[in-house]
Predict the structure.
Amino acid sequence: MKTIVARILSLNDAAMAEAADIIKNGGLVALPTETVYGLGANALDEAACAKVYAVKGRPSDNPLIMHISDVAMLDSIAKNVPPMAEKLIQTFWPGPLTVILQRKNVPRGTFLDTVAVRMPKNPIALRLIDLAKTPIAAPSANLSGRPSPTTAGHVLRDLSGKIDMILDGGPCEVGLESTVIDCSGDGAPVILRPGSVTREMIEGLIGPVGMATEAAKDEAPKSPGMKYRHYAPEAKLTVVVGEAEKVRAKIQSLATDTEKIGIMATAESAYYYKHKNVLIMGDSHEAIAANLFDMLRLCDEMGLEEVFVEGVAEEGLGVAIMNRLKKAASYNILKV
Ligand code: TXA
Ligand code: MG
């Protein structure tokens, strides 16, 4: 199959209607969202969703997020939406917050008793859902285990020839996947995956919420996706955390200057390193989040064998950045 790539500069582009037809006919379209690119299929078409799993190499017990373009669509897929979830939805949708609710009417095969739903904040994604007239199931559009794609080029690299179409809407604004919060139970909601809607923002609205910790090896994790290795480049990754000056000194001493070692540094400290392969992550949490997955992919393109990454403060968006970095490093963390 030849994957069509369409750069979308106007929502009236004929490619939008073409993409909607592909979804309606059970095909796969990669679409931009504000977080990362998604691999979209008709969420109510079990065969189309099965293709998503096959193409990504995704474990079958890891359910997909449903993307909707209108809160009214929620009625067709979820039930018993609790007041706290209503509040979150009113405040953060459209936006990078996925809410887990009790499931209704969604094909059984790929889903639990609950369903993950979000309304993305990207006009191309919203228009596509409108035109397709169905919720769109979309996991991140990467091969399973690879960093999530934040550009159409990333998607093409992983899925070229395996999917019908890619809608290129330029680089994603946020760069990290949505915050996932479980509101399906009776107790306080629990954040299953940190994202750019931070715990502070959520608690400011609805009071204390739980935060899922990584599940122990043989315990069932709350969010099936939590148990799989993610975002990993080929290189051995070490996240170095601590006071900035000490972190720099440690990395200086460990990164003997060869062709095969790389350093991912904040804009502030990139200047201090004299190494050849210093990747500048950015000068704010927002910038680092937007660059992170691209840089992890770049490490592979550069053929690096070992990479040292400066950790960031675990507050606000820093929690989500460190969550992805720790997973990418398979929890290889060095405290100085
Ligand atoms: O920002 C995002 O969320 C992106 C864009 C494309 O929307 N999508 C995304 O999907 O990151 P994916 O499939 O890569 O991650 C979805 C996460 C997984 O960790 C999955 O296990 C969890 O959400 N999840 C999905 N349905 C769930 C459910 N019913 N209960 C608990 N966790 C669920
Ligand atoms: Mg993913």
